[in-house]
Amino acid sequence: MPQTVSTVRELAGRVAQDAALADELRRDPAGTLTRLAGPLESDRLIYRVVVFALAGAVIVCLVGSLGLAWVGKDVPDGVIALGSAAIGALAGLLAPSPARS
Predict the structure, then answer these.
(1) Residue 2 in contact with residue 33, Cβ under 8 Å?
(2) Considering the domain boundaries, does residue 76 fall inside one?
(3) pLDDT at 95
(4) Which of 17, 43, 81, 83 could be bridged to 39 by S-S, CB 3.0 to 4.6 A?
(5) Distance between CA 44 and CA 39 in Å, rounded?
(6) Domain limits at 58?
(7) Is the same domain home to 72 and 88?
(8) Residues of 46-83 as b/e, b for ≥16 C-beta within 10 angstroms?
(9) Mapping DSSP to helix (H, G, I), strand (E, B) and coil, where does residue 30 land?
(10) CB neighbour list of residue 62: distance below 8 Å, 6 or more residues apart
């Protein structure tokens, strides 16, 4: 299995050194680039699992905080911190990247 590339500069260097890769890129550019992309850039399942896990953490923290407040107990700072971190991570994942827009 060929190694993945993480930058365009790295891809250009590999294409310049490997004639077979250059030929494959001419024949099927989209397929070749998809194959060379790392799993985090091309695998939507990883992205969805992370988003659902973070959303689940937000929901658990929110429900737990509301439940504790309902019964008159103090909400631990750790629950607030965990919920805040999960919301921040979701915002970072779901916001469009300035480099890709």
Answers:
(1) no
(2) yes
(3) 85
(4) 43
(5) 9
(6) 43-94
(7) yes
(8) eeeeeeeebeebbeebeeeeeeeeeeeeeeeeeeeebb
(9) helix
(10) 83
Instruction: Give residue 91's identity as a one-letter amino acid code.
Output: A
| Structure tokens that stand for 38 in this block | 């790392």
pTM for the whole thing? 0.59
- Distances 77 to 4, 32, 43, 74 between C-alpha atoms, Å: 42, 48, 35, 9
Regarding whether 87 and 52 lie in a shared domain, the answer is: yes
Category of 67 on φ-ψ map: left (φ > 0), alpha (ψ -120 to 50) or beta:
alpha
| Chain center to CA of 94 | 9
Max intra-chain CA distance, the chain: 70
What is the rounded CA–CA span in Å between residue 3 and residue 22? 15
